[in-house]
Amino acid sequence: MAKAKVGKKATGVAMELPECPVCFETMSAPIFQCQSGHSLCNSCTKNLCPSICPMCRQAMTQMRNLTLEDIIAKANVPCPNKSFGCVYTMVTQEVDDHLKECIFRVMTCPLGAVFGKCSWTGNLKEIMNHFKERHPQNCNVNMETGVELSNVSIHEDERFLYLIQQGNLLFIVTMKIDTLQKVVYWVVQHIGSKKTAQQHIYEIHITSKQDPRRQVIFTDHCYNDTLSADAVYRLGKCGILPLEMFSHFILNKKISFKAVIKRGAPKPKKFDKSKNSNENKQPNASKNTNPKTGNAQRHKSPGPAVLKK
Ligand SMILES: [Zn+2]
Ligand SMILES: [Zn+2]
Ligand SMILES: [Zn+2]
Ligand SMILES: [Zn+2]
């Protein structure tokens, strides 16, 4: 077969995958052949009645074209969102996972999902502009200096959501007062790939308005947005403060907190075990692309969700 055309991971060159001659869909396993060797996709083969090859009128067989199936499985295919601008190519089996975090996928407004008040859909490049236009109070904040929330009560469920742009990356900071569970949650999620999310850690600083000496700092790695904030809360892998404790941070129904997001050590277990543990202990050591991890990521990760202006 035309081996040279098959995409090499290193270069990201993608081949045009063979199409079924009947339905013109891209072939995927299982692929069946007729007696003279024409290959048809599974659903077209099943739909033939009688079971005769539409190309040559020979009988179809149960013989699979394993070579072609193998080539397709190993071929780099372009992202289905290529026409929207995604240049990422991947092995066929990785397409479904990539689509969940592809930055060119159609997204819904995070405030719509949480508050049900916005029906906007669009892509990552447009989301910040959408926030600036429609939800300015949810994006025009400097999380590093802190945000002050008013009308906060430990007796009422409440949610807060902020869209934060840091460099070229977007993050969502959420906080939820849950009177049923009697806790307050905080989590920072990156809109984009899991890998980029795990390369970032966040700190939530909550300082008491009643007594500045009282402070809580929570640190964790970021999640990406394939999980909802509620799902992260349920997992408990987020900042959590009992309401009783939280009440000492409120003064005149006001509370302040700040969120600091920085590039940090990735989640150790997901990464090369042979690496020495010192690297993981130095959050700032990997500020620039580590050639080792950088290369490793290129295979599977669509890379950071870079916003181009
Ligand atoms: Zn077909
Ligand atoms: Zn045939
Ligand atoms: Zn994509
Ligand atoms: Zn919206």
TrEMBL record:
Q: Name one GO biological process term.
A: proteasome-mediated ubiquitin-dependent protein catabolic process
The record's EC number reads: 2.3.2.27
Report the residue ranges that make up the RING-type domain in this protein: 20-57
What residue spans carry the Basic residues bias annotation? 297-309
Would the keyword Metal-binding turn up in this protein's UniProt record?
yes
Q: Tell me the keywords, alphabetical order.
A: Metal-binding, Transferase, Ubl conjugation pathway, Zinc, Zinc-finger
- Tell me if Zinc is a UniProt keyword of this record: yes
**GO annotation, cellular component aspect:** cytoplasm
A molecular function annotated in GO for this UniProt entry is: ubiquitin protein ligase activity
- Give the pathway: Protein modification; protein ubiquitination
| Homology family | Belongs to the SINA (Seven in absentia) family.
**Stretches the record annotates as Disordered:** 266-309
Provide the protein name: E3 ubiquitin-protein ligase
Q: Which Pfam families match?
A: Sina_RING, Sina_TRAF, Sina_ZnF
The source organism is Papilio xuthus (Asian swallowtail butterfly)
What the entry lists under PANTHER family is as follows: E3 UBIQUITIN-PROTEIN LIGASE SIAH2, E3 UBIQUITIN-PROTEIN LIGASE SINA-RELATED
Q: Which reaction equation describes what this protein catalyses?
A: S-ubiquitinyl-[E2 ubiquitin-conjugating enzyme]-L-cysteine + [acceptor protein]-L-lysine = [E2 ubiquitin-conjugating enzyme]-L-cysteine + N(6)-ubiquitinyl-[acceptor protein]-L-lysine
Every SIAH-type domain range: 74-136
Q: Which residues form a coiled coil?
A: none
State the domain notes.
The SBD domain (substrate-binding domain) mediates the interaction with substrate proteins. It is related to the TRAF family.
Instruction: Say what the protein does.
Output: E3 ubiquitin-protein ligase that mediates ubiquitination and subsequent proteasomal degradation of target proteins. E3 ubiquitin ligases accept ubiquitin from an E2 ubiquitin-conjugating enzyme in the form of a thioester and then directly transfers the ubiquitin to targeted substrates.
Compositional bias of kind Polar residues:
279-296
What InterPro entries does the annotation carry?
A: 7-in-absentia-prot_TRAF-dom, SINA-like_animal, Sina-like_RING, TRAF-like, Znf_RING, Znf_RING/FYVE/PHD, Znf_SIAH
Q: Where is the composition biased (Basic and acidic residues)?
A: 269-278
